[in-house]
Amino acid sequence: MDNTIAGLFGILIFLAFVGGLAISIGSVPFMVIVAIIGVMAVYDFYESVRDERKAATDKASRLSES
Q1: Residue 31 has pLDDT above 90, yes or no
Q2: Buried (b) or exposed (e) across 16-49, using 16+ Cβ within 10 A?
Q3: What range defines the domain where residue 6 resides?
């Protein structure tokens, strides 16, 4: 759970920083690149959380079977 909170905080700080940078620069190609990278970072975070929760569920089900 701590990794999820820290990861969410990191993603939000990253998106705020690069989003502000993209707005201040004002270049459309840079904004597109920032948007694509932001979506990729959020998707990777989602995959990491999903895998972590699946591993925890699998571990709990193995312990309950024993």
Answers
A1: yes
A2: eebeeebeeeeeeeebeebeeebeebeeebeeee
A3: 2-56
Is residue 64 over pLDDT 90? no
Nearest to 31 by CA among 40, 17, 13, 18: 18
pLDDT on residue 9: 96
Q: Reply yes or no on whether the pLDDT at 2 is more than 90.
A: no
Q: How many domains does the chain have?
A: 1
Instruction: Concatenate the DSSP letters of all residues of the chain into one string.
Output: -HHHHHHHHHHHHHHHHHHHHHHHH--HHHHHHHHHHHHHHHHHHHHHHHHHHHHHHHHHHHHHH-
